[in-house]
Structure formats: C-alpha cells, structure tokens
Write a structure and sequence with these properties.
12 helices, 72% helix, ABC transporter involved in vitamin B12 uptake, BtuC, single chain, 2 strands, 3% strand
Length: 309
C-alpha cells in the first residue's frame, strides 16, 4: 500500500507540471481559436532568459543573495516575455485578424522557429542550470502509518505546489474577471467580439503575456529539474495528450487531464512495465489520447461543436 501511494503521489506531482505546460496551449486557443505550436519554444526562451539573467544580475549588481537575484531575474525575464508578446501581436497577429485557423497555425510555427533562433542568439546555445533554491533531497512522510514511510522528492513537491497555485489563479482569472470573459468571447467569434466593443488586439496581447508568464514558470521548474537546453522545447510534446484528454478550451480540463496522464504514466510503468519490457511511460499518454480522439474528440471538458447547415 505504501509503494502504491508513493507511486500515486509521484504521478500527481508530475501531472501538475504537465498541466502547467498544457495551460499555455489552452490560454492561446481560448483567445485565438488556434493551437499554439510556439508554446514549447516559449518555455525554452523563458527558461533561457531566467537562467542567464540569474547569472548576469549578480555580476552586474553585486548581489550575493540567491533569493533576491532570482526574484530580480524573474522580473526581468517576465518583462522580456511581455515584450515578446507585444511584438507578436504588433508584427504578426494584428495582420491576421479574422483569417482562417490554418493561417494562424502556420503563424505560430513561424513564431516557434523565430523564438528558438532568437534565444540562441541572445543567450547562447550551451546547457545552463537554474537554481531557484528548491531542495532536492527526498523526505519520508507518514512513517507512523506505513513501515518505512512514503518517499517524496521535495523538489517535485514544491514544483507541484507552485504549479497548483498558478493554475488556481488562472482559473479565477478566467471565471471571475471581465478580461477573462472577454477572452472567452474572442475565442468564440472574433468578429462578434469586435462588434460589441471588445478590443481584439489588446486581448491578444494580454493572453500572450499571461501565456508568457506560464511559460516562464514552467521553464523555471523544468529547467531546475532537467537543466536548460534546447531539447526543453520538446517538453510541450508531453502536454499534447493532456490538452487532448482535458479539452483545448478548458482550464479545469488541463488540470484534470494532467493529473490523469501523470498518474497513468507512473502506475502503468510500475505495474504493467515488467510484463511488456518497460518503456510504457514514454507512450502511455499518447495511446490514451488516441483513444479519447476516437471516442470523445473534444476531450473530457471540451465544448461540442455543432455545425448547422
């Protein structure tokens, strides 16, 4: 029982990180109605900015306090992501209002390649580390209930708590604020939203800024765990099954989908892996997503699209 709970908790913590990356896809899709293939590049660019500024700021300012240096680096990196969001809207999205979804999709592909190249030009192409002060030592909990206790990685626990807090804040933002409701209106129909006075350009800037902050937090966490390297851009691929499972239009769906994928990966690898030679954790999420595409293409919490002719 203790081993099962240990595996379950590990899956839940991994699932929260998947949810965090998936949120970037959901945010952009809710505002523009297009799947953002640049999300992985945004995570990479944000992580590079955080890693390099956390190195440069102590040199520039003489700060020797890790927390203060990281806080300042986070602010500078967030401002850079805001600038990127403004430039994307100004130079790309503004000229594609009311265009077909395929056109916007190709635009996000171009943005992805541009951000990867820009990140390498500004910050370099080496492998960098991010030290945000999260403890990496494991800890045993519930040792009074289970013999030997349950092993939990502190870094994974803190990362999951940070992701959960951000997810909760974004859920409140979308459900309770006027801007969040405007974002949903823009996603439903660009022309109708403009006709009732919703400034489409400003809404797109806001949502790309929010997605940039989400990418920054995700990049910090994944960079702290894995190091900042250009393969980090592929972390978005791990979130694809999450948005398929939860639904591209649902913030709660991204959360539930991430938890299901995280738990399913861990449990399948531990309990089914020995019978098939292992490696289930790599492909389990994609097989599950394929099954959902066949049965419920809109996902668990996605909205059904009904076309009347």
């Amino acid at each position: 029982m203790a081993f099962f709970l240990e595996t379950l908790l590990g899956g839940l913590m991994a699932g929260m990180l998947y949810s965090l990356v998936a949120l970037g896809f959901v945010l952009i899709f809710k505002a523009s109605g297009v799947f953002n293939f640049a999300q992985g590049a945004m995570v990479l660019f944000a992580a590079l900015a955080m890693a390099r500024f956390s190195e440069w700021i102590p040199q520039w300012t003489g700060l020797d306090n890790l927390l203060a240096a990281n806080a300042l680096a986070f602010i500078v990196a967030a401002l850079m992501m805001f600038a990127v969001a403004w430039l994307i809207e100004r130079l790309v999205l503004r000229h594609l209002v009311n265009q077909e979804g395929a056109t916007l999709l190709m635009a996000t592909l171009g943005i992805a390649y541009f951000l990867e190249g820009l990140g390498q030009t500004i910050f370099g192409g080496n492998i960098y580390k991010i030290d945000i002060g999260m403890p990496k030592d494991p800890v045993f909990v519930f040792d009074s209930i289970f013999p030997g206790g349950i092993l939990i990685n502190k870094e994974d626990l803190y990362a999951a708590l940070i992701a959960a807090l951000l997810v909760a804040l974004l859920s409140v933002f979308f459900q309770k604020t006027a801007t969040g409701r405007a974002l949903r209106a823009v996603a439903d129909d660009h022309q109708a939203a403009q006709s009732i006075g919703i400034p489409l350009n400003r809404i797109w800037v806001i949502v790309w800024c929010v997605a940039g902050v989400v990418a920054l937090v995700a990049g910090m966490i994944w960079g702290s765990k894995l190091g900042v390297q250009f393969s980090l851009a592929t972390v978005a691929l791990r979130a694809l099954p999450v948005v398929i499972l939860g639904g591209l239009t649902s913030v709660p769906g991204a959360i539930i989908g991430g938890l299901i994928i995280g738990v399913g990966e861990k449990l399948s690898e531990v309990y089914l892996g020995p019978f098939v030679g292992g490696g289930i954790e790599i492909w389990f999420a994609y097989v599950l997503a394929l099954g959902f595409l066949l049965i419920r293409p809109q996902g668990l919490f996605g909205e059904k699209i009904i076309d009347r002719v």
